[in-house]
# Entry
Amino acid sequence: MSEAFDAVEIIGAKRDKNELSDPQIDWVIDAYTKGVVADEQMSALLMAILLNGMNSREISRWTDAMINSGERMEWSMLDRKTVDKHSTGGVGDKITLPLAPLVAACGGAVPQLSGRGLGHTGGTLDKLESIPGWRASLTNAEMLEVIQSCGAVICAAGAGLAPADKKLYALRDVTGTVQAIPLIASSIMSKKIAEGTSALVLDVKTGSGAFMSDPKKASELARVMVDLGTRAGVKTRALVTAMDVPLGLTAGNALEVRESVEVLAGGGPADVVELTLVLAREMLDAAGIKQLMDPADALKNGAAMDSWKRMIRAQGGDPDAKLPVAKEQVQILADKDGTLSSMDAMSVGIAAWRLGAGRSKQGEKVSLGAGIEIHAKPGAKVNKSDAIYTLHADESARFERAQSALLNSFAISQDGSVASRLPLIIEKIEG
# Structure
């Protein structure tokens, strides 16, 4: 059967800074998904897109083509409105864990399709798999059952959801094209639109620990994604939030679950609590959900914790079981008295990765107990020999490279000065 186009002409068009037509985009996504377009050809096209960009029509059509490569989920049978959140990821970003059950406790239905970590950023599914028995892979029928009984589900996307994106994501990762805003936006939004949620709140991270470190670029990405969601009929808004300093006091799978449970119990680090509450209120408002209670009250009165335990049990997990603990620990100490003036999120993320909490390529196993505890954040007073970090690993050989990543990760001032930081919430963008 003859093809409507050939890959070379489409590559050439974008190489020469021309717009791709709707039929060209539809064909190349479909042909790549079916194997008609080879990896090396799509790699060339992705690089051309990275270098020359796409306009809003092209991005929207590219996103639609990826959605149309698979199934769309639908939740009209539920007795409550659906709303989801997506974060672009960072160091210590465990917000999904307390957020999904919190929104459920307040009256929302949260179909949270999540992913696994790669590099210095963690993955929600890896974190939850540190809970004994918990299952990430659910059928559509099982997802529906969990949402109906618990109000929230956190699980892996099924094979039928935007399969084009799965192929493209793997290719982007090995071809240096991850940073292209049209490709980031279409990748995230194709899955979220296909997921079928009625409203979506995006948490776009920026700062050293985010893959979009420039706040202006992060804002641009947020605007593109909000536009894509709005065009698709999904009520979409975005918050650009800080990731120059690690979020919370842990980075690593089981460590972050422990911290999330502390938040659900009414405690936890102030920045994690604040961002969780801000996002919960945005989600409930975006979906037009009549709140059963204020999110802050749901954390204090145990409703969010009850929701968490129901959700974990519904996916085979034991919320009361002991979490994995790494076999060995090493502390990094302050070398003088003073004020902790700065801390670099990227350095902490790389160190946690090297300890075994992350993976360097898709499919690698992670150490569930590995990671870093942070004992002081910028602004805190410290004394010489106070612990700044505790490093957790299953193999002692991992400590040396992790420690090297942390050599210049923090500074101590003796005059009380603290380096300037990004505000936790930098910008809000609505459709």
Remarks:
- Residues 215-231 form the longest helix (17 residues).
- The first strand starts at residue 83 and ends at 87.
- The mean pLDDT is 95.
- The two ends are 43 Å apart (CA to CA).
